[in-house]
Every structure is written in structure tokens, then in C-alpha cells.
From TrEMBL:
UniProt xrefs under PANTHER family: P-HYDROXYBENZOATE HYDROXYLASE, TRK SYSTEM POTASSIUM UPTAKE PROTEIN
Pfam assignment, any one: FAD_binding_3
Name of this chain's protein: 4-hydroxybenzoate 3-monooxygenase
Keyword Flavoprotein appears in the UniProt entry: yes
Signal sequence extent: none
Entry keywords, A to Z: FAD, Flavoprotein, Monooxygenase, Oxidoreductase
Length: 389
């Protein structure tokens, strides 16, 4: 098979890029290791920035999102005693959309056939070849047969553990990493949310987040030590801990119910530079990871896709040879801005094992400053809704 672009990974980044390229008449294919059902079973992000929503609008794939998504004008930070509301609408003129990654991915997946976007699921042993040339190709096996796709460009949208980043020689790449000493234990339950807006809580027992997927489905997180085992966390124990950490007002409105999903995700900050080598471009988690505080992971993947789509379109439609070399630095500027915000909000809202009473007071003093200063709230709001692309 010969295509202009071969995309590895059918997560949000790969599918979004595939649709944007097809809309420009660029011939591409998406190759995914898992089944479609498996991709949709992974419960991940829940908050979309306006830029991500705009990409779905541009594709004309926003109908269900407009109907079922929940636009939010603000969110809250909590310091164990009070809620500090960040009025993002008043401070930035923008909103965020509560709409699960699963739903966004489903919308992209369901539209692929009608829009002639070929997605090959259950492709095993995907490998990249000749990425330093103008004629790279990928190979994979499916149903026992070996396949090859020749392309002008390969785009690695294959997440943190995929083969694309690893295809770039170590001598040309640089890695920046911070692994945090805790993970987020998430619970999904069909119960109404405890608050109409999100609450990120800093409590002396640890972090908690009250989020939602709809008016009848809640998503909550608490941070736990990496040594904790999921089987030691019964639903009741999680609800008890959430009730303490979110504070009495939110606790009074928590509706308990059986979990329909429970998982622990480690927290990491990670950036790989450059995001392009030869004929290979990286997008999303393949190139970078942010800790989830700040809801940036999926939105950052979407902004990479925006730049990659722009560069590939300039190459194929306008014969512009400068756009592809500029991709990495353009995307990385925004990546580092999101890394900084996610790292700073993680530091503000979590208890680190090495921290003592002084560091805790520093966190509380910063939260108090945020509560008292509109400037401080504006800085947070501006970053939360996403800096301009
Ligand atoms: P992915 O969604 O990881 O998609 C990559 C795709 O590539 C997958 O479908 C994978 O199967 C495929 N792939 C991998 N290897 C291969 C291969 N060898 N061959 C072919 N295909 C391959 N962000 C938030 O903002 N909020 C959250 O609450 C949140 N929770 C998260 C929880 C977890 C457990 C994880 C891992 C991430 C979470 N994130 C969260 C981050 C967010 O979900 C990601 O940033 C987002 O999924 C990135 O999209 P992506 O398309 O780049 O990567
Ligand atoms: C969700 C996850 C986040 O990381 C976040 O910052 C906000 C919401 C969620 O899964 O709903």
C-alpha cells in the first residue's frame, strides 16, 4: 500500500489528524495495535479546551458534543476549608467543555468510514523503516500476514509506549523527565456530581478531584502512593477518603454508588525533543506526558495535531518545504507552556513525601493569594483554557 501519510495509533491524536488530512484530500491511513472497542474502553481525560472543541467543529463532528457535552464557565480550587472559584469565563471570555475522551474518540471513529479514513485495527509488530529518507515505510502483521505501507511521511501518534519515538536515534534526541511519587486513583460511577463545576482539592491527607462526565455520571480522583494496590481500595474506602479531602460542603452533596471503572495512573512530566526527525513527526503522548492536574494531556495532543496538519497541508497542497522543519519548534513552544502549568498546579495541589510543615504553609499561602488576587486567578484561568496556538 502507498499513502502520502501513514499514522501510527488510533487514539485521539491519530484519528483527529487522519480526519483533518482527509478533509484536505491528503491520502492517509491509521494503523492501530488494539481493537476499536479496547481503545474506547480506556477511561481517560474529561475536559476539552475551546481549541480542541473548535477542531471538532471544523470537521463537522461536533453535533453530539454540542448536545451531550457540558460547557463550564469555571472551576474550583479547594484548600481544605473553602472553595476558590476560578471564573474562567469572566477572566478569559472562554469556557471549557466537559466531554470524555472516550466520547470524542467514538465520534472520530464512527465518522471514519463515511469520510473515507482507513483505520487498520489489530495491527501487530508495527515497525518504522528509513525515517531519515524521503521514502519511509512501516511494516506490521495482521491475521498472520506481513504488510507494508510506503509513505512520504510517518506520524507517530502511538502514545508513550509506542514504537515511533524509539525509532529516533538516541544521539539526536533529548529527554526531560520528572516522575512523581504518587499516582491518581480514579473512580467512575453513575451518580450525579457533587458540584456543578470541577473541584481540585488540596487537603492535608492529599489531593482530590471531583469531576464529571454528565449530570448522572461522576469521575473522582484521589492521589495515592505508588505502592498502593487497587484491590486495597474498596468503593467505600474511596468514597470515605473523597468526603474528607473534598471538604464538608462538597462531601454533603456526594452521592455514593458502585464504581463502573477504577484504576491507578502514575503521574509523570516528560518531553522528548525534537518532535520531528527526517520524515517522522511525533504528536501527543508519543512525544510528551503531563501530570493530569490541569487537564492538559488530550488538549496538548490536539494542539500538536493542529501544527502537524498545518505543516503537512502546506507541504502537500502548497509545495512549501519549510513547514515540516518548523513543526517541532512550533509544537514544543506550546508543549513547554503546558508542561510548566501542569507541573506548577501539581506542586501546588499535592503533598510530596519530602515536604514538611513549611512547604505545606507555602502551598496554603499561595492558595490564599490566589483567593485574594484577581491577577493570580487570571494567570490560572488563562493557562487552564489553553494558551493561543
Ligand atoms: P493515546 O491516547 O495513548 O493513543 C495512542 C494510541 O496508539 C493507542 O490507541 C495505542 O493503542 C496505539 N498504539 C500504541 N502502541 C502502538 C503500536 N505499537 N502500534 C500501533 N498502535 C499503537 N489526560 C487528561 O487530560 N486527564 C486525565 O484524566 C487523563 N487520564 C489519563 C489516564 C491514563 C491511564 C493515561 C495513560 C493518560 C491519561 N491522560 C489524561 C492523558 C490523555 O488521555 C492523553 O494525553 C491522550 O490520550 C493522548 O492522546 P494520544 O492520541 O497522543 O495517545
Ligand atoms: C478530569 C481529569 C483531569 O486530569 C482533570 O484535570 C480534570 C478532569 C476527568 O477525568 O474528568
Amino acid at each position: 500500500m502507498r499513502k502520502q501519510v501513514a499514522i501510527i495509533g488510533a487514539g485521539p491524536a491519530g484519528l483527529l489528524l487522519g480526519h483533518l488530512l482527509r478533509a484536505e484530500g491528503i491520502d492517509c491511513v491509521v494503523v492501530e495495535r488494539q481493537t476499536g472497542e479496547y481503545v474506547l474502553s480506556r477511561i481517560r481525560a474529561g475536559v476539552l479546551q475551546q481549541g480542541t472543541v473548535a477542531m471538532m467543529e471544523r470537521l463537522g463532528l461536533d453535533a453530539r458534543m454540542k448536545q451531550e457535552g457540558l460547557p463550564h464557565d469555571g472551576f474550583n480550587l479547594a484548600d481544605g476549608e473553602r472553595l476558590i472559584r476560578i471564573d474562567i469565563k469572566a477572566l478569559t471570555g472562554k469556557q471549557v467543555m466537559v466531554y470524555g475522551q472516550t466520547e470524542l474518540t467514538r465520534d472520530l471513529m464512527e465518522a471514519s468510514e463515511e469520510r473515507d479514513l482507513e483505520v487498520i485495527y489489530q495491527a501487530a509488530d508495527v515497525a518504522l523503516h528509513d525515517i531519515e529518507s524521503n521514502a519511509p515505510y512501516i511494516t506490521y502483521t495482521k491475521d498472520g500476514a506481513e504488510h507494508r505501507i510506503d509513505a512520504r511521511f510517518i506520524v507517530g501518534c502511538d502514545g508513550f509506549h509506542g514504537p515511533s519515538r524509539q525509532a529516533i536515534p538516541a544521539s539526536v534526541g533529548q529527554t526531560f523527565e520528572r516522575v512523581y511519587p504518587f499516582g491518581w486513583l480514579g473512580i467512575l460511577a453513575d451518580v450525579p456530581p457533587c458540584n456543578h463545576e470541577l473541584i481540585y482539592a488540596h487537603h492535608e491527607r492529599g489531593f482530590a478531584l471531583a469531576s464529571q462526565r454528565s449530570q448522572t455520571r461522576s469521575r473522582y480522583y484521589i492521589d495515592v502512593a505508588l505502592t498502593e494496590k487497587l484491590e486495597d481500595w474498596s468503593d467505600d474506602r474511596i468514597w470515605d477518603e473523597l468526603s474528607i479531602r473534598l471538604g464538608p460542603d462538597a462531601a454533603a452533596h456526594i452521592t455514593r454508588g458502585p464504581s463502573i471503572e477504577k484504576s491507578i495512573a502514575p503521574l509523570r512530566s516528560f518531553v522528548f525533543e525534537p518532535m520531528r526527525h527526517g520524515s517522522l513527526l511525533l504528536c501527543g503522548d508519543a512525544a510528551h506526558i503531563v501530570p493530569p492536574t490541569g487537564a492538559k494531556g488530550l488538549n496538548l495532543a490536539a494542539s500538536d495535531v493542529h501544527y502537524a496538519h498545518e505543516a503537512l497541508t502546506a507541504f502537500f497542497r502548497k509545495a512549501d518545504n519549510d513547514a515540516i522543519p518548523a513543526y517541532s519548534s512550533k509544537a514544543l513552544r506550546r508543549v513547554w507552556a503546558a508542561e510548566r502549568f501542569s507541573w506548577s498546579l501539581t506542586k501546588l495541589m499535592h503533598r510530596f513525601p519530602e515536604d514538611g510543615p513549611f512547604e505545606r504553609r507555602m502551598q496554603l499561602a499561595e492558595l490564599d493569594y490566589i483567593a485574594s488576587s484577581e491577577h493570580a486567578r487570571r494567570v490560572i484561568a488563562e493557562n487552564y483554557v489553553g494558551l493561543p496556538v
